[in-house]
Amino acid sequence: MAEPVRVAVIGSGPAGLYAAEALVKQTGGNVRVDVLDRLPTPYGLVRYGVAPDHKSIKAIARYLQKVLEGEGVRFFGCLELGRDLTRADLLDCYDAVIYATGAMVDRHMAIPGEDLPGSIAATDFVNWYCGHPDAADHVFDLSVEEVAVIGVGNVAVDVVRILARTADELRETDVPEQVIEALARSRVRRVHMIGRRGPAQAKFTTKEARELGELPNAAIHVSPQDMELDPASAALAESDRHVRGNIKVLSGWTGEPADRPRHIDVRFWRAPIEILGTDRVEGLRLEKTRLDETGRVTGTGEYETLPVGMVLRSVGYQSVPLEGIPFDERAYVVPNDGGRILAPDGTRVPREYVAGWIKRGPTGVVGTNKSDAAETVRNLLDDLSGDRTAPGGTIEELLEARDLPVVTYADWLNLDAAEIALARSLDRGERVKLARWEAMTKACRGD
Ligand SMILES: Cc1cc2nc3c(=O)[nH]c(=O)nc-3n(C[C@H](O)[C@H](O)[C@H](O)COP(=O)(O)OP(=O)(O)OC[C@H]3O[C@@H](n4cnc5c(N)ncnc54)[C@H](O)[C@@H]3O)c2cc1C
Q1: Of the four, 88, 264, 317, 351, which is 20 to 30 A from 183 by CA?
Q2: Contact at 8 Å (CB) between 356 and 372?
Q3: Do residue 119 and residue 243 come from a single domain?
Q4: Alpha carbon of 242 to ligand 1 centroid (Å)
Q5: With a threshold of 0.90, does the pTM exceed it?
């Protein structure tokens, strides 16, 4: 039997772990996969993106756990490509490398006032309520009564839902204790969700939208005028199941809102043009919009101002470039052909591959990454089926030479157990996340 193929997968989110699974399956087990992550915790956005009240999706972690525990697969936490290791190091230790580092930076809106305190990237807020260690000490001023969430995708819906829920509704979830405490003090009572285009162009899935209408303590409303469809949108609502589903759900929210302590106002046909305020956000100026003959959004010259004290922008995610690896600055992905990285001149870069959001952009659900990763792995194994040069060193030698401490899978299990124990001690559901680096590192050591 040939020597096992040695592959490094950078990123332990769904794409990285589905790639590890595909490597094991497609080689019949004749592989050694090392999954590296900058965090001490595996599962990427399943842990730090998927909303805490989406428990069934979070349960995908249990499937991914089996991959990590499989024969031939190892986890190396707290190892960051670019900080601890370079691309050349990886190519020295492995036959091939798969980059699966995701896409977790918000796009900007490029409007005046965007940098005022109180104007926030949705990713920062998501990271905070999901207990990401980089956001553990973020402080959001929830003493304001009105908030605007800009964007009508699923992430915007998640953010609106978390703001509209009471702390008690989230007690059984895994959000860190300090987040529960901050949400318990929240005075936010009205959340505006704002879309530049109309209801037929909303990006959220019908299932996500429906959940907004089912919140026990929040009434939801959309004005009948915002629901008016131009002929092209009406035709789309006829032909497209997703659009039809969304319109049906939204139309159910046009009546008198229920009498509840919190309110969600969904507002279509409005483009944010300025965030107002001197020392902090005091309002959001919007221009009403319509679609022109070519289907593009255009301003109508009518304006309105919302008296909001916080603006959260959720207008798309993008990947960050990895040092030395080609990057498409317009599409924010690594240029590739079926996962094979392409150099700027269009030729293939040998032994380097991509999977997941960094390969195709931030689209699809968790499961989309499975077939995506399998495609990358098929191409990688096809390419490696020719002559292989033996790697120059091992990751262990490299870690030792640089004195780099790593978090092993066993260390992560210590942290996992500490979070489960914390939930029990607080009488709070299955798990309560530890969010601070220090507490996480301590728990990894089993202290
Ligand atoms: C807020 C939010 C909510 C979502 N909710 C849902 C949902 O409810 N249902 C659903 O199906 N999908 C949901 N998704 C989509 C889903 O999370 C993605 O499809 C999926 O996580 C993408 O997988 P990935 O592996 O490409 O990236 P990620 O999950 O982002 O994983 C990337 C991993 O790479 C690591 N990494 C990054 N840079 C480096 C580096 N330099 N060195 C080492 N490691 C690095 C990161 O720490 C991370 O663990 C949501 C996404 C977001 C943003």
Answers
A1: 317
A2: yes
A3: yes
A4: 24
A5: yes
